[in-house]
Amino acid sequence: MRYQKIDPELFVGNRERLRALLPPNSVAVFNSNDILPTNADGTMLLRQNSDIFYLSGIHQEETILVIFPDAPDEKQREMLFTKETSELIAIWEGAKHTKQSASETSGIENVHWIDAFPGIFRMLMTQADQVYLNSNEHARATDQVETRDLRFIRETQKHYPLHDFKRLAPLMAQLRSIKNSIEVELISKACEITEAGFRRVLEFIKPGVKEYEVEAELIHEYLRHGSDGFAYDPIIGSGANACVLHYLENDATCEDGEMLLMDVAARYANYNSDLTRTVPVNGRFSERQKAVYNAVLRTMRACSQMLRPGVILKDYQEEVGKLIESELLDLQLITKKDIDDQDPEKPAYKKYFMHGTSHHMGLDVHDLGDTWRPVEEGMVFTIEPGIYIREENFGCRLENNYLIGKDGNVDLMATIPVEAEEIEELMNAV
C-alpha cells in the first residue's frame, strides 16, 4: 500500500459504534467488492467496498466481516475471513494478507480463511434472530452490475427464509456521516496532495496545452506524494467545455482568452478530497471573467457560513439559490422581470446554476449521509457553487471541503490558492 499504516483504533472504534446500533441477537455481514473484468483476461484494480474498509481497514478481495455482539462464543463476536494466500499467488499477484497481518490491520483477533465461512456462518445462523445485510442504497446510485453483497443477500435469504432480515445501509449512513479525528487527518492528507497538484499546474497551464496534458501533470504530482490516484474521473474543461458539468473527454486545446475549469482531486488511503478551481488559460482574467469568478467566490464563502449544525440541506440549497440569484442580477445575466415571472419549481437562476452546492465526502466522494438529517458537528461537506454561461462559452466553479465545527467550520483546503489575484500571481511567477 502507498499510504502509511492507519491506526487500527479507527476500525475498532467504528465497529464499537456499529455494535451499539444493533438490536439484541443480531448478526451483521459485510462483503468486499469484486475485482471486475475488462476484456480478454484483463481486470480492473480493486476498489474496496467502503463499508468493509470503514470497519476493518482491509483492502483485499474475497474478504468477509462478521459482527455478532451476542454470540455465545466470545471468539465469534467479530470475525474476519480473508482469501488464503499461497506461494503461487505471491509470485503472480504479490503478497496477500496473512492471518496475522489482517489482525494487525483491523484489530480483529479472530481471522479465518474464507473457505471456512460457509460452515461457521451456518452455525451462527442457528443462534441469530436478526440478520443485517449490506447493499448500496446511495440515492444517486445506478448499479447495473450485481455486487458480491447482492449475491450474498439472494443466497442467504434463499437458504434461511425464516430469519428476520434487516438493512445495514441506514446504520452505515448514520455512522459514516460523522468523521472522527483519524478520518479527518486522512481527508486532510488527500487535500494536501491535491494542493500540490494544483500548484504544479498553475506553472504549467498556458495557451496551446491540451486538457489531457494538465491531467497528466496532476496525476504525476498525486502519485509522487503517495496518493491512490484520482478521487474521481477528472473534469478538465476549457472554454465551453466548462459548461458541461461532468465533462470527461479532456481532449481539447486550451486557447488564449479561455477559462479552464478543473474539478479534480486526490484520494489517499481510500479517503477522498474534492477540489474545483477555474483559472485563466493565459494567466490573466478578463474583466468579465474576474467578475463572474468573484461572484462564485463570494457565494462559496457565504455558503461556508450558512452550512452549520442544525441546517437541513434542502433549506440550505434554497438559500444558496437566493445568493446566486443576486449575483446573476449584478452580472446582468437575469433581470428582475425574470425573477418576478419565474416558475417557483424552475427558478430563473437555474439557467446558470443547475446543480447542488454541497454533499457529504469521505470514503466515497459522494459519501453516505441522509439528505434530511440535520447537519452535525463532525460532518465533512463540499461547497461548490458555480455559474455557467453557455452563450459566452465559459463556466466557473469553485469548490473546497469543510469540516463542520461547533463554533465554526474548518476549511480543509484553506491553503489552496483561490483569490483571483493570487492565482494570477502564481501563473505569472516565472
Helical segment tally? 13
CATH architecture of the largest domain: Alpha-Beta Complex
Low-confidence stretches: none
Strand content: 15-25%
**How would you write the strand order of the largest sheet?**
4-3-2-1-5-6
**Which superfamily, in CATH terms, is the homologous superfamily of the largest domain?**
Creatinase/methionine aminopeptidase superfamily
CATH class of the largest domain: Alpha Beta
| Strand-pairing-aware structural class | alpha+beta
Largest sheet: 6 strands, mixed
Can you write the helix and strand succession as a string? HEHEEHHEHEHEHHHEEEEEEHHHEEEEEH
Please estimate the helix content: 25-40%
Verbal overview:
With 430 residues, this protein is an alpha+beta fold. It has 2 domains: 168 residues, Creatine Amidinohydrolase, Chain A, domain 1 (3-Layer(aba) Sandwich), CATH 3.40.350.10; 247 residues, Creatinase/methionine aminopeptidase superfamily (Creatine Amidinohydrolase). 35% of the residues lie in helices and 15% in strands. The chain is built from 13 helices and 17 strands. Helix 8 crosses helix 9. The longest helix is centred in the middle third of the chain and has 24 residues. The chain is globular, with a radius of gyration of 24 Å.
